[in-house]
């Protein structure tokens, strides 16, 4: 188990689009993250973190598993000058039960269902849930497309 990893080591996202603070647990098939919702977050409306924010948080959580392939070698050494792009290709069975508020910390968990790896891209399906303490906020299945791009430094 890996504890307290900065998500920026696994994603190209930066503020104001970064919707995950830390990875609490990650392996080849599972990831768990946390995110503290601040008042100035672009997905906050009237002190409520919107549906779009929950979905973006979920997508970024899922991307950490796939992003790991591009940002780190199998032995754990970091790849430098790596650039990736990613897209949500589909959302399935989305259920949003409740929306968190400003100053809440949500936990998001994702489990790999399937993955196809090409030369410079990965397609994957993940089963996801977001929670506020023990309350389930969101459940869904998400399909992601992640592709390595040519870096200007290479």
From TrEMBL:
* Gene3D superfamilies assigned to the protein according to its UniProt record, in alphabetical order: Hotdog Thioesterase
**Which InterPro entries would you find in this protein's record?**
ApeP-like_dehydratase (IPR016776), HotDog_dom_sf (IPR029069)
Q: Write down the superkingdom of origin.
A: Bacteria
Q: Name one Pfam family in it.
A: ApeP-like
State the protein's name. ABC transporter permease
Provide the species name. Answer: Flavobacterium frigidimaris
